[in-house]
């Protein structure tokens, strides 16, 4: 096992800079080289981490000696071409979500991954969350349904403004409909990932999406009804009419009780209906599944099994999201 795994980071905006901080705080994954089309973003990264090598192109970054993996944190547009470039060099790719809205490019990438055996994963942060493990235990395919039959799933999202304060410094793409932006791709995709991982593919039954009249700005509200694994799913997402900067709630309602996950799954509440007992300790589930996302990335680089979604799973999420965004 190599001492450190060397990381090249492409895209040094809000999320790329945050990842540099996370990498600096642990031992095994070492950021060594960076690239961004914006010189100011590179300058910010070098000011914070002077040991980084700044390259002058994506090609130069990918050719950096000794690199094990590339983390792609650009807006969605370049995700597929940059992944292909990294595959050409045999590097493991950890790509930000949403995977892409260019489905042909995604399918080409996925075919290559399968045919050539590339290592690739997408950063849906909830993949390593204790909340997802709880849901899989209670409602997943292998579960013995300790909460009884699942009756409904609700997903509620509310944002006082868009973009959210944490991403206020991101590029204009984030609020543009045709550049991969909007809250459905940016936030709802995380919850559709969880839904589909636990229940399988979702089918959109009905939906209503509101767009500003300018033809450019991303959606401002989305309501929808889906079916996943035979279970009705209701989605209610909106910008404005709410003081909360980044509110999210997923409610799984079953015959024997319900599980409510809020604050990006940071808060998990399991409520039992009378006469029902949960036979295991949620705290134990939480501890057992507290797997650091970076450890999963290491496993992916080393070709070991991991819980991160691959490109095909991320494409399936995006297919559902894009259906919801049809006017
Ligand atoms: N996993 C998560 O929890 C999470 C959270 C927020 C955002 N994201 C995703 O991360 C990605 C980046 O989001 P962000 O908020 O950092 O955006 P951002 O606009 O702040 O940063 C994007 C950076 O990419 C650079 N860039 C654009 N095209 C490039 C190219 N071809 N080559 C190199 N650099 C390029 C830009 O100059 C910019 O510095 C998006 O896909 C977004 O959806 C993920």
Automatic annotation (TrEMBL):
Keyword field: Oxidoreductase
Keyword presence, Oxidoreductase: yes
InterPro entries assigned to the protein according to its UniProt record, in alphabetical order: Gfo/Idh/MocA-like_OxRdtase_N, Gfo/Idh/MocA_oxidrdct_glycsds, NAD(P)-bd_dom_sf
Source species, domain of life: Bacteria
Gfo/Idh/MocA-like oxidoreductase N-terminal domain mapped to chain residues: 5-124
Protein name listed in UniProt: Gfo/Idh/MocA family oxidoreductase
Lineage: Bacteria, Pseudomonadati, Pseudomonadota, Betaproteobacteria, Burkholderiales
């Amino acid at each position: 096992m190599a001492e450190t795994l060397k990381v090249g980071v492409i895209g040094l905006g809000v999320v790329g800079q945050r990842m540099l901080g996370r990498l600096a705080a642990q031992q095994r994954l070492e950021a060594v080289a960076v690239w961004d089309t914006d010189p100011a973003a590179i300058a910010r990264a070098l000011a914070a981490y002077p040991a980084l090598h700044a390259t002058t192109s994506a090609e130069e970054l990918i050719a950096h000696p000794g690199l094990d993996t590339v983390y792609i944190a650009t807006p969605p547009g370049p995700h597929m071409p940059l992944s292909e470039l990294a595959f050409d060099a045999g590097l493991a790719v950890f790509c930000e979500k949403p995977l892409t809205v260019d489905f042909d490019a995604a399918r080409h990438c996925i075919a290559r991954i399968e045919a050539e055996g590339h290592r690739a994963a997408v950063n849906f942060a909830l993949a390593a969350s204790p909340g997802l493990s709880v849901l899989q235990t209670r409602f997943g395919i292998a579960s013995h349904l300790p909460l009884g039959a699942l009756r409904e799933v609700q997903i509620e999202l509310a944002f006082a403004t868009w973009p959210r304060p944490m991403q206020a410094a991101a590029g204009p793409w984030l609020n543009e409909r045709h550049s991969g932006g909007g809250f459905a791709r940016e936030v709802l995709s995380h919850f559709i990932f969880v839904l589909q991982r636990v229940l399988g593919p979702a089918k959109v039954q009905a939906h209503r999406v509101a767009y500003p009249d300018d033809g450019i700005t991303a959606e401002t509200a989305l309501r929808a009804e889906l079916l996943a694994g035979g279970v009705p799913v209701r989605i209610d997402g909106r910008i404005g009419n709410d003081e909360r900067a980044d509110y999210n709630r997923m409610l799984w309602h079953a015959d024997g009780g319900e599980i409510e996950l809020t604050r990006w799954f940071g808060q998990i509440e399991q409520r039992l209906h009378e006469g029902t007992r949960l036979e295991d300790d949620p705290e134990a589930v939480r501890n057992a599944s507290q797997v650091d996302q970076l450890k999963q990335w290491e496993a992916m680089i080393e070709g070991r099994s991991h819980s991160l979604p691959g490109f095909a799973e991320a494409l399936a999420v995006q297919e559902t999201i894009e259906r919801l965004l049809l006017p």
